[in-house]
């Protein structure tokens, strides 16, 4: 069933750049969708619009779980992971992961259990009291994934999430995200300019082209590699 629906979205920035032209895209429950295309084709613009972080010029974005338009709405259940971990440097790992629950004024034993689960899921059990600067770049990204998933969002949006990491760390994190998706049935939209990453990771590849940014292909991938 659909989670999010982008219909006829055009985006023209204030300086006149046409970043998206006629984008139509429906994300369904349980899909791992890669947005693939060269730099400047509008991938980030589309992802940010899905997240409600940017306005459309024309068109609509609907968040189907609640059955209403996501643009400008604060009640949507989605999470965003950026290229940098964007952790609060003055706060310990546990406090960083707790942030979205604090914002929802959640507390108590159930909340602590959710934080424990999120930390364990990403392999950061026992790092509660570390400060971000004491962690490697990969571990910082793990903390940002834990923070994203601690509220159990319906949709995880990732904008070239591991692009700032060295190749080996990136591959390990990609593999772990793939396993978490397979295990937990997350719905993911993942921006990349790597054909390899798109094909290796996702169940569906949406290909974009630049000038003006538009969707030119939409390919389903059925278990391309043996997965363990
Ligand atoms: P991608 O993520 O595929 O690299 P972007 O969505 O970042 O592409 O950008 C699409 C186009 O919109 C590019 O031409 C980019 O330069 C332009 N663009 C992005 N953000 C802005 C902005 N805030 N103002 C003006 N132009 C922008
Ligand atoms: P080889 O078999 O030659 O060691 P692979 O087929 O494993 O190479 O990988 C081919 C390319 O894809 C390499 O650039 C490699 O770093 C990259 N790659 C491998 N595994 C992953 C992964 N899990 N996520 C993203 N890229 C990967």
From TrEMBL:
Keywords tagged on the record: ATP-binding, Nucleotide-binding, Translocase, Transport
Ranges of residues in domain ABC transporter: 4-228
Annotated family: Belongs to the ABC transporter superfamily.
One GO molecular-function entry: ATP binding
Organism from which the protein derives: Halopseudomonas pachastrellae
Portion held of the full protein: 31 to 258 of 292
Protein name stated in the entry: Nitrate/sulfonate/bicarbonate ABC transporter ATP-binding protein
Translocase is among the record's keywords: yes
């Amino acid at each position: 069933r659909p989670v999010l629906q982008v219909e006829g979205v055009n985006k023209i920035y204030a300086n006149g750049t046409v970043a998206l032209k006629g984008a139509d895209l429906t994300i369904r429950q349980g899909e791992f969708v890669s947005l693939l295309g060269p730099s400047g084709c509008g991938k980030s613009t589309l992802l940010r619009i899905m997240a409600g972080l940017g306005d459309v010029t024309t068109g609509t974005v609907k968040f189907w779980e609640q059955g209403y338009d996501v643009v400008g709405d604060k009640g949507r259940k989605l999470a965003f992971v950026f290229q940098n971990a964007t952790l609060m440097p003055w706060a310990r790992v546990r406090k960083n992961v707790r942030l979205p629950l604090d914002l929802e004024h959640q507390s108590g034993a159930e909340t602590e259990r959710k934080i424990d689960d999120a930390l364990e899921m990403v392999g950061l059990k026992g790092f509660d009291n570390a400060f971000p600067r004491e962690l490697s770049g990969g571990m910082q990204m793990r903390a940002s994934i834990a923070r994203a998933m601690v509220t159990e969002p319906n949709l995880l949006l990732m904008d070239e999430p591991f692009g700032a990491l060295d190749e080996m760390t990136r591959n390990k994190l990609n593999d772990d995200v793939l396993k978490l998706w397979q295990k937990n049935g997350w719905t993911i939209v993942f921006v990349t300019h790597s054909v390899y990453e798109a094909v290796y990771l996702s169940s569906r590849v949406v290909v974009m082209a630049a000038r003006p940014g538009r969707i030119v292909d939409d390919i389903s991938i059925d278990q391309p590699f043996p997965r363990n």
